[in-house]
Amino acid sequence: MIHFALLLSLQEVDTEIKGGLFDFNATLPLMALQFLLLMVVLNLIFYKPVSFILDERDEYIRNSLTTASSSLLKANELIKKHEQELANSRKQAQEIIKESQQEAQQIVTIKVREAQQEAEQLIAEAYEQLNVQKDKALRTLETQVDTLSEEIKVKLLRN
């Protein structure tokens, strides 16, 4: 117990002599030197490699974003180009369909005219043939009437 009391009294003497919380003696520059040495070692071992990796990662992300942006722009340009080509193709298809319809209508009109002309020609030929047959029949009837008239005349004169 004596030793314990002695230690307590020595500590009281030391705290009174040292002057409180901060001592400005040779340990302060040593602590500052240790801190600076620790900062240099941490900088070399930890901060530089980590910052290098983070810089590489940032560069990779930046490059990826740039590449993605340019790819997106190219894709949008291609989409616009293909939409324009599709619109032009649709327009051309509509024009081709319209022209085909007009050509088909013209062909139908021509065929109808030709059919009408053929029908009119057939009617005219049939009318002419009927007229010829009528004239022939009338001539035949006239000759028969003449013959019968002569026979009647001869029979009447005989009587």
Descriptive tags:
159 residues, mainly alpha, 0% strand, hydrogen ion transport, plastid, transmembrane, transmembrane helix, thylakoid
Task: Characterise the protein shown here.
This is ATP synthase subunit b', chloroplastic. Keywords: ATP synthesis, CF(0), Chloroplast, Coiled coil, Hydrogen ion transport, Ion transport, Membrane, Plastid, Thylakoid, Transmembrane, Transmembrane helix, Transport. It is a single-pass membrane protein. With 159 residues, the chain is mainly α. It has a domain at 34-115. The protein is 94% helix and 0% strand. It has helices spanning 2-18, 27-158. It is rod-shaped. The model has no long low-confidence stretch (mean pLDDT 87).
Question: Low-confidence stretches at least 5 residues in length (pLDDT < 50)?
Answer: none
Helix/strand/pairing category = mainly alpha
- What is the rounded Rg? 64 Å
Biggest sheet architecture? none
Mean pLDDT: 87
Helix tally?
A: 2
Q: Total number of β-strand segments? A: 0
Q: Tell me which oligomeric state these chains represent.
A: single chain
Shape: rod-shaped
Percent of residues in helices: over 70%
Secondary structure elements and pairings:
Layout: H1 2-18, H2 27-158
Brief summary:
Keywords: ATP synthesis, CF(0), Chloroplast, Coiled coil, Hydrogen ion transport, Ion transport, Membrane, Plastid, Thylakoid, Transmembrane, Transmembrane helix, Transport. The chain is 94% helix and 0% strand.
